[in-house]
Amino acid sequence: MTTTDISTTPVEGVPPITHRDAAGLALTAYERFADVVERLRVDDWARPTDCDGWTVRDLVGHVVGAMQSAASLRVFARERAEIRRRLRATGGGPEDEVAVMTQVQIDRVAELSTAELVATCRRLVPRAAAGRRRTPAPARRLVSFPVQMGSIDERWRLGYFVDVILTRDAWLHRVDLCRAVDTDLLLTPEHDGRIVADVVAEWARRHGRPFELHLTGPAGGRYVAGDGGPEIEMDAVEMCRTVSGRAPGSGLLATEVPF
User: Fold this and answer.
1) How many independent structural domains does the chain possess?
2) Is the residue at 122 inside a domain?
3) Angle at 97 between CA 125 and CA 28, to 5 degrees
4) Residue 7: pLDDT band by 50, 70, 90 thresholds?
5) Residue 189 lies in a domain
């Protein structure tokens, strides 16, 4: 399906991802990530990725580590404690927390062989999705924490992190992985298009300016906000790579969206 197959959507009409929506999106995102991991060849693991300084092994290690903490409250608690310990040891601040967190996740699975890492990834698919689904509503609504990365300096509710960010992270890392090993990226309107639409809606809220956006490809769509804004046409996945900081963006596309 291309953008010629669908009508234009006012961006304010894109429905937010609910906790119920998030459960299905998370399961599919993890399943599709595991599908790509299972196809990796021996010489793929050392390939560089679009994530600075990360090989394919590092990228997979981060996602599998994140799945472990999503699947188990005990692992999550230990991860948070280790992050705090490392930040104290290095004198790091909130701006360092994301990098420390991902390194903790990579380190936790570092001793696994690639075969064990592949098996662990597949085994965690339903557990990680279920763990996120079980996050209590009061915690999702009331717990918040500071986040600093790139131009983003704000507080996130736990619900936003669990229901939105963790799925975006696994989704975009599947994109990174497919690019690194030059394999086809499976995209469908129902799954990938829903994630992209949510990214567009948040991007629009963050810059608050009018635009007409035509995103091509199976995950694409047509979105509009206000009148008289610039017309932008590009591939849907490339748009997400741009606002994530993986590709250069100018004008409205310089507005960062967290993944």
Assistant:
1) 1
2) yes
3) 20
4) confident
5) yes
